[in-house]
C-alpha cells in the first residue's frame, strides 16, 4: 500500500522461448493465518531469461483448492504488492476477500521471485529498530543491499511476469484469472500484455497506472493527510477534541525541524526501558503507514495532539506496530532493486521539483534519491521511455477497485489505467483506503465478476463500508 514502458515490453530483451514447464509436485503445507493445510510446490525457472547459462531460481506457490469437487478450469492467481510482499503473506485473505471465489475456483498464491519462500531478498532487522537513529538504519540498509550486488539485476517485473507463465503451465491451466493488489496490479498488467490469450480476466485493487513511479508519492500523501484533517474538522467529536489540529501538526513538525528529540518509555512490545529517537522523517513514515487504512488513520488526530504536548508515547506505540517483526515486511532487496531500476530513473527535474515542494512530505524524494544514488543500479532497458505513450491495450475484462481514501493509489490512478483497459469497469468504495477486496460486499462482487467477467457489475453496496469514529482520547472514541 507504487512504471515505465513496462506495458509494452518492460525490458526489451531477446527473451528465450518459454519451454513447457513440468507439473508441480504438490505437498501439504501450512501458511501463516491458515489453520487448514494447503498445497505447496516449488518450480525452477531461469534466473535470467536472456541467458540460459545463468542458472535457475525457485518459485514457491501455494494453492487453496476449490471447495466444490469440480472446480472451474481457470484458477485465480494472486499477486501481492510492495514490491517485496509475498503471495503466501496473503493467505489470510482466503477467509475474507476470496471466501466466495474459492467455492468454485482454486486460489493460487505466488511468492514472486525475491519474496517469501522464493529466495527472499531481505535485510536482517536491527535488534531494536525503534532505538536506532535514522542514519544508522540507513547505513545498515545500504550495506545489506550492496551485499546483494549484481544479484539484484535478475529481479525485475518483467522476469516475474515470465515466471507466472511458467507457473500457469505447471498448474495445467489453459487460462487464468489474475488478482493484483497495489504493485501486484502492475505485474498483472505486464503479464496480460505479454500473454493476452492466457488471461481470462483481471481484478486490480489499488491500481497502479502506467505513469505511477514508486516512491514519488508525496503529492498523494499530502492530499490524503489534508483530507483527514478536513474530516476531523467536519466531525463534531474530533473537532471538539482537537480544535487546532492542523496547527498542532505544524507545531510538531517545526519542533522536529529544529532538533530531533528522544522519548523514554517502556517498550510497547516487551515493557523493557527504551530511549527512542524521534525525527521528522520517522514521524512522517508512521503517518504514511497509518494513512493506508481509515481504521488506523482514525488514530492520527489523537497521536498528533499528544505529540504537540510532548507526549510521544502513543506515536511510538503506533511506530512499533508498523515495525512489528511479527508482521510480514516487504523484502527490501526486491523493493529497492525494482524501484531504483524501473521507477526512479524516470523522474525528471520538473517532477523532482514538484515533489520536493510538497510542504509536509516533500523530503521523501530526497531520501529516494539518496538510496538509489548510493546503490547505483543500472536502469532497466525501458526505464527512460515515457510509459503512458506506448502502453498497450489489454483486451481481458477487468475489474478495477479503488478506495476513495487511498493515499498512494487513489481512484484517479485507476481512471488513467482504464485508457489501456477498454473492457474494464471501475468501482470506488467511499469509505475505504488502500485495498478494497476484503471489505463489505467486495468478496461477493469478486465472485460475481469472475462468474461473468463481461457483465456490468453494480457496486452500490460498497457505499455501506462505514468510516470508523476518530480516537479522541486514550480511552478510544468519544462515548
Would you mind describing this structure in some detail?
With 479 residues, this protein is of the alpha/beta class. The chain folds into 2 domains: 289 residues, Alpha/Beta hydrolase fold, catalytic domain (Rossmann fold), CATH 3.40.50; 110 residues, no CATH class. 36% of the residues lie in helices and 15% in strands. It contains 17 helices and 13 strands. The strands form 3 sheets. The chain has a 9-stranded mixed beta sheet with strand order 1-2-3-5-4-6-7-10-11, sandwiched between helices. Strand 8 and strand 9 form a beta hairpin. Helix 7 packs across helix 10 and helix 8 crosses helix 11. It is globular, with a radius of gyration of 22 Å. The N terminus is likely disordered.
Keywords, please?
479 residues; alpha/beta; Rossmann fold; 2 domains; nine-stranded mixed beta sheet; two-stranded antiparallel sheet; 13 strands; 36% helix; 15% strand; globular
- Summarize the biggest pleated sheet: 9 strands, mixed
Low-pLDDT runs: 1-20, 383-390
Q: How far is the N terminus from the C terminus?
A: 32 Å
Query: What is the CATH homologous superfamily assignment of the largest domain?
Result: Alpha/Beta hydrolase fold, catalytic domain
| Average pLDDT over all residues | 89
Indicate the CATH class of the largest domain: Alpha Beta
* Total number of strands: 13
The figure for the number of domains is 2
Q: How much is the radius of gyration in Å?
A: 22 Å
Q: Can you count the helices?
A: 17
How large is the share of residues in beta strands? Answer: 15-25%
- The best one-word shape is globular
Amino acid at each position: 500500500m507504487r512504471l515505465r514502458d513496462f506495458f509494452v515490453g518492460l525490458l526489451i530483451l531477446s527473451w528465450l522461448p518459454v519451454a513447457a514447464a513440468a507439473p508441480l509436485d504438490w505437498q501439504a503445507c501450512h501458511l501463516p493465518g491458515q489453520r487448514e493445510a494447503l498445497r505447496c510446490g516449488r518450480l525452477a525457472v531461469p534466473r535470467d531469461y536472456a541467458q540460459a547459462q545463468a542458472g535457475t531460481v525457485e518459485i514457491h506457490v501455494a494453492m487453496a483448492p476449490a471447495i466444490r469437487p469440480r472446480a472451474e478450469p481457470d484458477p485465480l492467481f494472486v499477486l501481492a504488492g510492495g514490491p517485496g510482499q509475498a503471495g503466501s503473506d496473503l493467505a489470510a485473505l482466503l477467509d475474507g476477500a476470496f471466501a466466495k471465489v474459492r467455492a468454485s475456483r482454486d486460489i493460487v498464491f505466488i511468492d514472486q521471485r525475491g519474496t517469501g519462500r522464493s529466495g527472499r531478498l531481505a535485510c536482517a532487522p536491527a535488534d531494536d529498530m525503534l532505538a536506532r537513529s535514522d542514519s544508522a538504519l540507513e547505513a545498515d540498509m545500504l550495506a545489506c543491499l550492496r551485499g546483494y550486488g549484481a544479484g539484484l539485476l535478475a529481479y525485475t517485473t518483467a522476469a516475474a511476469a515470465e515466471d507466472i507463465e511458467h507457473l500457469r503451465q505447471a498448474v495445467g491451466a489453459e487460462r487464468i484469472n489474475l488478482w493484483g493488489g497495489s504493485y501486484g496490479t502492475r505485474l498483472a498488467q505486464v503479464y496480460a500484455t505479454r500473454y493476452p490469450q492466457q488471461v481470462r480476466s483481471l481484478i486490480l485493487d489499488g491500481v497502479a497506472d502506467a505513469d505511477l513511479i514508486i516512491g514519488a508519492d508525496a503529492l498523494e500523501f499530502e492530499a490524503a493527510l489534508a483530507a483527514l484533517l478536513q474530516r476531523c474538522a467536519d466531525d463534531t467529536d474530533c473537532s471538539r477534541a482537537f480544535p487546532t489540529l492542523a496547527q498542532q501538526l505544524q507545531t510538531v513538525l517545526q519542533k522536529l525541524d529544529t532538533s530531533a528529540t528522544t522519548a523514554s518509555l517502556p517498550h510497547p512490545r516487551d515493557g523493557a526501558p527504551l530511549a527512542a529517537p524521534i525525527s521528522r522523517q520517522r514521524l512522517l513514515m508512521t503517518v504514511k503507514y497509518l494513512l493506508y487504512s481509515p481504521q488506523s488513520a482514525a488514530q492520527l488526530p489523537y497521536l498528533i495532539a499528544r505529540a504537540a504536548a510532548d507526549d510521544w508515547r502513543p506515536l511510538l506505540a503506533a511506530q512499533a506496530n508498523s515495525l512489528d517483526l511479527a508482521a510480514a515486511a516487504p523484502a527490501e532487496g526486491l523493493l529497492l532493486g525494482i524501484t531504483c531500476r524501473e521507477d526512479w530513473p524516470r523522474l525528471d527535474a520538473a517532477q523532482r521539483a514538484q515533489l520536493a515542494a510538497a510542504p509536509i512530505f516533500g523530503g521523501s524524494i530526497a531520501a529516494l534519491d539518496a538510496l538509489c544514488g548510493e546503490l547505483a543500479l543500472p536502469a532497466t532497458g525501458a526505464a527512460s521511455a515515457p510509459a503512458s505513450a506506448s502502453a498497450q491495450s489489454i483486451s481481458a475484462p477487468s475489474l478495477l477497485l479503488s478506495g476513495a481514501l487511498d493515499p498512494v493509489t487513489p481512484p484517479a490512478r485507476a481512471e488513467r489505467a482504464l485508457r489501456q483497459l477498454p473492457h474494464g469497469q471501475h468501482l470506488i468504495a467511499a469509505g475505504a483506503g488502500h485495498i478494497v477486496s476484503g471489505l463489505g460486499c467486495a468478496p461477493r462482487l469478486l465472485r460475481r465478476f469472475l462468474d461473468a467477467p463481461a457483465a456490468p457489475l453494480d457496486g452500490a453496496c460498497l457505499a455501506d463500508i462505514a468510516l470508523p469514529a476518530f480516537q479522541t482520547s486514550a480511552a478510544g472514541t468519544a462515548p
